[in-house]
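Usage

Read records sequentially. Each one opens with the input sequence:
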Amino acid sequence: MGKSDEPGNLEARIRSSFARQGLMSTLGATLGDITHGAVDIFLPPSPAISQQHGFVHAGAISAIADTAAGYAALSTMAPGKGVLTTEFKINLLAPAVGSRFVARGKVIKAGRTLTLAQTEVFAEQEGPPRLIAFLTATLMAIEGRNGISD
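and closes with the structure output:
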């Protein structure tokens, strides 16, 4: 494993890329654990990201789920590579009510060009976390683009 592939560099690369994502900043999302093939993203609820019934909007939940899958995929790719989502499907299993939401992205199968990942989104509140959404995504490796690939 070369220096640029070391775990500390992987985490720094992903944290640096995440910091440049305007949407994650707008939502108030933050990165949690980063390991090879897995990334957690946290989202606090706020009125700014709610829908008309007071739940966190499905768009916000989808955004953190997609982003967690994307960074999980990126964590398996060589330095200099980037990642773009080519397709995702999300199942919304329960209203997004909680004191915090956790999107846990993980790679199911990493390929040279395409990677399959999934994300489970949990609502934290009193008692055990509750699964509220499940996403599957296909992600494409890219080269030569600034942004998520750095």
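Summary fields computed downstream for this record:
- Helices lie at 7-19, 22-27, 58-74.
- The chain has three helices and six strands.
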